[in-house]
């Protein structure tokens, strides 16, 4: 069953691209953005946009986390190309992408299924407060940042759909 607004997310028992287990910081919001492939310009654009807004997210007590199923070495290369300062989680076994119901059919010429590009805003209690399914890579970070500001400013006291 898909994870959406109002749901608790499953435990993200994944390893970061640096080889260390991922442990979310207590009492912080999280942006989880799933992306299909590190070696594409759209995924690099999305990741760079999050990096460009990272200080704004951090000032609002929000951590940014990218999730992808490519091998760790490809994620490390992606980190270097995009100059990222936030964690990339390795979901090569596709367990978390499957739990979020994000796996698409394999791309032409490939055998592996890849996650759809979707973004989740998760509150400190692990509840999805916002879920984006039609993600534009160049606008995702700014849209999410705007929603975070609205939520934290009290402009929306209800869960968004």
From TrEMBL:
EC code: 1.11.1.24
InterPro entries from the UniProt entry: AhpC/TSA, Peroxiredoxin_AhpC-typ, Peroxiredoxin_BCP/PrxQ, Thioredoxin-like_sf, Thioredoxin_domain
CDD domains registered for this protein in UniProt: PRX_BCP (cd03017)
UniProt entry keywords in alphabetical sequence: Antioxidant, Disulfide bond, Oxidoreductase, Peroxidase, Redox-active center
Domain Thioredoxin: from-to ranges: 3-153
Matches recorded under Pfam families: AhpC-TSA
Keyword set includes Oxidoreductase: yes
Protein name: thioredoxin-dependent peroxiredoxin
